Amino acid sequence: MSFPRPFYRWRPHPWHGLSVGPAPPQVVHAYIEITPFDPVKYEIDKETGYLRVDRPQRSSSHPPALYGFVPRTYCGSRVGALMADAGGGDGDPLDICVLSERPITKAEVIVNVRVVGGLPMLDGGEADDKIIAVVENDPVWSHVDDLGGLPEALVARLRHYFMTYKLVPGADDGDGAPPVSIGAAYGRDHAESVISAAMADYADEYGS
Q: What is the full DSSP assignment across 7-44?
């Protein structure tokens, strides 16, 4: 019996065992951890590769897009150097938000996506960029090739979600400051630079 190539006898780790995508940094794979229908934040377990419940969301906010990461990326010194005031990357795979016209309700799926921009999020002094992409063959969004092709309201929703998703209703952090800050959204060229930096950081950290 012959098997297709590549053939995996065991389930590959989503971060390390999947490829970064068919044509990086323009077209990449997004491994989806959270859908817009999830009131619970899931996160990849770095040891096993399975999804772990990080926390039930304390606010009423739901993610406005598919949310996951780009395999074989790592936010290290190169990613950190691309963001003002960042002391480095956050040590996680590069986060990505994916817009799809059709509802995708399942997590732990791989999506081919085309990169259009991103949000420069600073979390605890570390770079935690949120790349923005569209499903590559989406019937509505596939024509978009840069951030300016998206409705401003969609980008504003993403910004609001990430500015508030760590807030605990009724809690006071002492100075009233949000736990994260987000600069001006950037377009495709800078987003591709962030992805290339995250791929290089991954090679430094784990080898190619």
A: --SSPPPTTTTS-S-SBTTTEEEEEEEE-TT-SEEEEE
Read off φ and ψ for residue 55, nearest 5 degrees.
Answer: -170, 145
Residue 109, helix vs strand vs coil: coil
Give the separation between CA 91 and CA 35, rounded to whole angstroms. 23
- Its pTM stands at 0.92
pLDDT of residue 1: 53
What structural domains and CATH numbers belong to the chain?
27-206 (3.90.80.10)
Q: Reduced to 3 states, what is the DSSP secondary structure of residue 117?
A: strand
For the chain, give the number of residues. Answer: 208
Whole-angstrom distance, CA of residue 123 vs CA of residue 62: 20
Q: What are phi and psi of 125, to 5 degrees?
A: 80, 5
- pLDDT digits over 84-103, tens only? 999 999 999 999 999 999 99
d(CA 77, CA 90): 9
Q: What does 144-168 look like in DSSP terms, one character per residue?
A: --SGGGS-HHHHHHHHHHHHHTT--
- The per-residue pLDDT for 35 is 94
